[in-house]
Fold this sequence. Notes:
11 helices, single chain, mainly alpha
Amino acid sequence: MTIEAKxxxxxxxxxxxxxxELEILLAKSGGKGSSLLSITGIDSKFKLKxxxxxxxxxxxxxxxxxxxxxxxxxMISKTQTMIYFSMILSMYMNAGIISVVYPVSVxxxxxxxxxxxxxxFWNFIRVYTTVILLFKLLMNLSILEESLKSDTxxxxxxxx
Length: 160
């Protein structure tokens, strides 16, 4: 809006008479720090629809698009919070010895860090999660079905 208003002021005062008028207005203001819009009175001379860029910007859909974009950036900046929540939810949904690592890592290390946890922490969580997913995948393969029926497997699967 300010850029467009400055363009309108430039166009309105872009002749000899306009330059003299603008100099008089600036001298009257005495450099009190008022905005160029209020000094010249352009804001009262022009309506919002005459300022096409500003009018388009303030319409509903462009504002909605910018709000969605802002929400997206907020979510990106808070990824660690979402990951912490997912780790705790994993412990809640799949309570077992394997899932204990997540809340311990969140409450025992990650939240105690002054800023964000270091890269090593995230690498450990990533590798640990990958190994657990691979282990659970191998346990569900049909090739291992006979060993899955054994008492030993049932005992260890109950621990998970």
